[in-house]
Design brief:
Blueprint (H helix, E strand, L loop, with lengths): L11 E2 L1 H8 L3 H9 L12 E2 H10 L4 H20 L4 H12 L7 H30 L3 H26 L8 H20 L6
Antiparallel strand pairs: 1-2
Amino acid sequence: MTKKTKNFDKNIVSQSQLAKLIGKTRQLVSIYAKDDRLVKSDIPGKYLAKESIERINQTKHLNGRAREWSIAGEKAAIDAKIDGVEYTDLKDRVSSKQLSLETTNARELFDNSRALREKSLALREAAEYEKFIGDLCKKEEVERVIFERGRQFRDSLMILARRISPNLVNKSNLEIEEILSEELRKTLISFTKLPVIE
């Protein structure tokens, strides 16, 4: 009885075998597969080694760009997940999956965590923006308020001069200084108590 041996094509390899052939990590070869830089064979999950190596070499300049495209695609998927969803709704929806002991899909758990993080960052940025906008005011408004306060201060001093001038007749320099100091102090205090200009 002869032992039957299967004929197989040495050019057809798995991702792990291809990683060993080219001296790269399994994770990097997996990224190559996601970026369509491997040539698939007719067997599911298997690749043509020679052709894949050629394609990898031909697309070396795409290493960074392909990863950027991949990251952009992942970000778009996260944005689609969080767009228009309230944070509390997203949190409840994600928590039910994250806390499930039956869940074994690591990618889904990772994406859920990223979705929550992106949403919370977006909300924080929005809050900071609103606060920033609230702290700003138009130049014309500032100029209007300064002009109005300047006019009010000028009018107060003019009234002060008319009001106290009769009291300064026949007073010594020291008495005049005391009267002026007291009246100016009262004027300044009343100025600080003026209502806010809307």
